[in-house]
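Before relying on records like the one below, remember that each one covers exactly one chain. Contacts with other chains, cofactors or solvent are not represented anywhere in the record.
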Amino acid sequence: MIYEKNLTGKNMNPKEFLDSQKKNIVELQTMLTSHKAIAPEGGGDGEKEKCDALESWLKANGFTNIERFEAPDNRVSSGSRPSLVVTIPGVDDSRRIWVMAHMDVVPTGDLSLWNTDPWTLVEKDGKVFGRGVEDNQQGLCSAAFAALYYIKNGIKPGNTVKLLFVADEENGSEYGAIWLINNTNLFNKNDLVFIPDGGDSEGRTIEIAEKNLLWLSIHVMGKQTHGSRPDNGANACLAGCALSLKLHNLEKVFDKKDSLFEPDYSTFQPTKREKNVDSINIIPGEDRFCFDCRILPCYKLDDVLAQVEKCIDEVQKEFGVKIEYTTPQRSESPATSVDSPVAQKLAAAIRAVHSLEPKFIGIGGGTVGAELRRKGIDAVVWSTLDDQAHEPNEYCIIDNLIKDALTLVEIFK
């Protein structure tokens, strides 16, 4: 559906406008859900079809300044991963307001756990169900309809608004936000970036910091032998277990606490372990396992890795094995200050629109906010949601989407 510009000469207030758009919001969610924007890592062909459909919708509804950026990726049939930047010129262009949402979604998982077809939106009891409707189509739609309020009422926002709909958020952002940061000049250091992609059911929490992320993939190489003659071999599994305990005990070395986070301490946790031998009576000569470490930002990852290597050296000497490791993910970023303009602007909007006192938090997970913060660009993550991301029967509460759009309308003023 194409929404006509308001020609009555009287502007609707934001609440009236957005409440009047519920049917149209559901239609946009329906269209977006029907396009399977899954990355190659999940067996998909990327975001092109969804991006094409979204771009057509934007053009049909009065968005005239649209740029498309293509990150090369030969794993998908189109050869690239698209992102869109939509500009709504404001009174002041010296500091732009960005709203970043992502187009890609995760696979459905076990279809038997779904009550409906994940790719066919179902509306029921004030909710819409389908893969991606909350993560992150809620944020995408709230941004689009907040901007649509200004366009259809002929109002200029206070600052130039940039809506950024990116690819590849679910698998590390290499072909999305990171590519844009490294290959374009889109962002200025005084820009304010809002990311509606995580929060709580009230819309109260504002994420301003992330724990440093360190993944370890460890390969222990010993000597395989018969189960009855451990003296003739070097048990890689035993050495791996010893190393796992040493690495886990680094929680006692990096032991500071920060109430911004839950849990409020650094975590060093063994996770994935690969198959080694095929029989119980074989002492394994190799062992492969992984660690997921979430470390408070007061610590540097170089210092953590120095301790990891110390643990490895001790185990090598004790068990007569060789140990190698890689870091599939390594990410550290500064926090956005509570007193920063972006944090305070969002906090003021939450107070003004919803009469809630916002709460600043840090998280253990990773977001694209970290990529921006590393470049000196302040970013905050927030939304009003039930945290249905990646779950079967994912849903979005329509009133939550409207609540977030109202908050963005206030921010754009």
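The chain has ten helices and 18 strands.
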